[in-house]
Every structure is written in C-alpha cells, then in structure tokens.
Amino acid sequence: MKTLQEYKCPCCGGAIAFDSTLKKMKCPYCDTEFEMDSLKGYDDALQGEQSDRMEWETSAGGSWQEGETDGLRSYVCKSCGGEIVGDANMAATSCPFCGNPVVMMGQFSGDLKPDLVIPFKLDKKAAKAGLMNHLAGKRFLPKIFKSQNHIDEIKGIYVPFWLFDTDVDARIRYRATKVRKWSDSDYNYTETSYFMVHRAGSVGFEHVPVDGSSKMADDLMESIEPFKFSEAVDFQTAYLAGYLADKYDVTAEESIDRANQRIKRSAEEAFAKTVKGYTSVIPENTSVQLHGGKARYALYPVWLLNTTWKGNKYTFAMNGQTGKFVGDLPVDKGAVTRWTIMLASIFSAAVYGGAWLLYLIGLL
What we know:
Elements (H helix, E strand, L loop, with lengths): L16 E3 L4 E3 L6 E2 L1 H12 L24 E6 L5 E5 L14 E6 L8 E2 L6 H12 L9 H4 L1 E34 L4 E24 L6 H6 L9 E2 L9 E3 L5 H21 L7 E30 L2 E8 L5 E3 L5 H28 L4
C-alpha cells in the first residue's frame, strides 16, 4: 500500500505530504498544491504504465553457396585489426580506416552472406568533387588547406548494416507546461501550469539502419543517411568488383540496443508532434511493444576520403548513392581572431558614431 509520503510531485519530482491546514497535498520544494482526487488519478495513471517489450528475430543473412566466394580475398590490418574483403585482382592496398598497410590473408571465409546491397551510384570523381564542394565557402578554413591538402586515399567501401523492421504499439506520457506572463504597476507575474498528456497508437518502422562495423564511427555513418532503400537489390558478389567490403564485427544481437534507441526516439518525436498548444512538451515515460521485429543484413556504399594537413589526418565520408558528404575541417585560429577584432571594431565605430550624432543634435 502506498503511503501519502511516497507520492512524488508531478511538477518537480520532490516528495509531497498532506498539509492539514490546507486540507490538500503540498510540495515543500515548489509549493504546488494538489487536490487528493487529482493526485490519486495521476498516481493511478502511473501504476497502469507498462514496461518496454522490444524483442527481435535476428537470424539475418544467408549461407554462401559453393564457389560463390572463390573470387574474394580477405585482408587484415595489423594496426587496427580491421578486416576487409576485396576481389582477387586487387593490388596492395591500405586500410581504409587507419591508413596503414593491410596484409592479404588469402581466401575469404564469411559467416553470413548479405541479404541485400545498394550498389555504388557515384564514382571516385564524384567523391573528389564532393570534397571540393565541402571545402567551398568555409570562412575559417585555412586558405592554404586547399592547395597544400592532398587526398591520401579515396576508397569505395561497402559498409555492413543491420536493417531492422518492426511494428510498434506505443503509449507515451508527456509532461507539458503552459506559461502565462503578465504584469501590473508593481510586479511581473509568471504562472506555470503543468499537464500530464497521454498519446497511444501504432506505427511501422522499416529498414532502420545500424552499421555493423566497430571501425566506422557511428555518428559519421548516421550523418550520411538516409540511403534510398528502393534501390536495394539482392546481393551478388559481382557488385563487389573494384570495391572493398568491410566484414561486420558487430552482430545483429549486439546492434539491438542502438536500433531500440532509434525506434524509441523516433516514436516519441512522432507522437510529440500531435501534442500542441503547450509551451513545452517532454516525454516522461514511453512503453514500446514490438511485433514481428526482424533484422536483415545489407551492404551500403560509402566513399571514404583521408586527407592530411600539417601532420593531422582528416577523414571524410560520402554516401555512395546520394552524394551526401560529411567530415570535420581544420579552423584557422588566426582568421577567427582577425574576424573577431574586425567585428569588435565595427561595433565600436557604430557606438561612437551614434554617440557623436546624439551630441551634435543636443541629446547628450
């Protein structure tokens, strides 16, 4: 049995107690008062909430057929441990992740055959053009970066992805507020009203991607999304000709947490769009029930570009299907300083000019 002292304030989360003078429940932290019936209804709603049930069928990928991997070779980087796959005609190459030489280990042997592949649509020339466009218009990019910068490596690589499909039944409780402000001749007033808002419904998710490579930065891969799944085809080894393929080292089971996070966050955002008329809306509890969740194994096309400037390496990635380009750039600290000084000078001149004008017209 819940005692009165165990109730939490819906506004600030502090413990509340019965105030015998007011005949109401009162929070000693934010001074909010509650009628007993309203508080009981709030507590009953909390007691009825369910926990998440997010289970998946992860038997993705098929078996390699006899002779299907005869033309593939396995390469391992002795520096970062990355394992990539290429065709038998590939010359000596370097690791697309850290740039160190890789050693050919011989015939490729894989655990799972990919279900799907999105073939490369853009070539190496487009990747170089993407880098130049990425550099254009950057005010604080060092001027000599373009001229001194050279592209050490441009490699087309198929990155392993686990694609999660599921139907979701979700119940979400939001904490919403309405803020009203007014003033009189003596004071400024602010009134904040708190609301518990419920939303429930069903939504379907298809092809939620989670990269299956520990060497690829998750934020880098998510930044070049989305890929157009409509162009995915059944996997054939012929699509690997002339490209590298990263062998997955993160299993579908190990990728479930990230998939669940993305699905849960997307469900909260989708339902939150239906909560209107409030000053703020914050999800406080989400119950997600998955139905028919399954994962598939796919290869997505990515161009990786490694560049060097002043001894530092910069890695860029381009979506090999859509051309979306991402990557960090160096900053010319001297240019930032000069720009700041110039803005300060302009501001000072404007202030001085305004003051002088006021003086001339007799207001100062």
